[in-house]
Amino acid sequence: MLRIAALILLLCPVVLLPDDRYDQQRERMVRQQIINRGIEHRPTIEAMRAVRRHIFVPEAQKRNAYHDGPLPIGYGQTISQPYIVAFMTEIVQPEPHHRVLEIGAGSGYQAAVLAEIVDEVYTIEIIPELGETAAARLRGLGYNNAEVKIADGYYGWEEHAPFDAIVVTAAAEHIPPPLVDQLKDGGKMVIPVGSPFFVQQLMLVEKKGEDITTRNLMPVRFVPFRRAED
After folding, report:
1. Residue 9: is its pLDDT beyond 70?
2. CATH number at residue 125
3. Domain count along the chain
4. Residue 12 in this model has a pLDDT that exceeds 50
């Protein structure tokens, strides 16, 4: 009887439930796109493993959720390439006690990754439809440590400043001074800087007392940093 049962198992393919399929794709993404490309920060790796990226993309894009590239999420916006999300998270060195500001909530994916690691995440989205959806999604997934505000991200979120880290997910033509002001002493900001629709430079901004240092990290292409008057 055991031999018959074993034979049936060999002949019948294993049917994966949708979540099982996504789990396998996510694990492959983490190994091939994140770890193999040099991301070493263990909390970032575990956060990328934990957050179900397919929940943060439109239904028509779910089959591509773990592909190696950005995806459209509507309103001319995108969810960033997984590697870029991991790189930007790692570079600001988030720690459990940190308070982090994100500019450009989009679908809420980067905020969820940060919320897996740090104590408080504040994320700003200028497009009301995206901001409202991201807020509902994050609440529904139990990320009670992530708060969404619909506003012009250029001015940051002063009432919750200073921030240990700021992650900007849209390309600005210059580094917004209010964001620098809202960085804590010793804080770090990662931001793409350059002209819209052209190659930009991903920059690391570090604040040490009165000294502000910047460093170019890599060429990138992000959607433009939208302002209230746009």
Report:
1. no
2. 3.40.50.150
3. 1
4. no
pTM, full prediction: 0.90
**Which one has a higher pLDDT value, 94 or 8?**
94
What percent of the chain stands above pLDDT 70? 91
Is residue 120 assigned to a domain?
yes
- Parent domain of 147: 17-220
Residue of 58, 155, 156, 60 whose CA lies nearest to 109: 58
**pLDDT one-digit tens code per residue, 139-171:** 999 999 999 999 999 999 999 999 999 999 999
The answer to whether residue 158 sits within a structural domain is: yes
Rounded to 5°, the CA angle 13-15-16 comes to 135
Active site residues: 80
Residue for token pair 């433009």: 224
Q: Which of 80, 153, 95 minimizes the C-alpha distance to 122?
A: 153
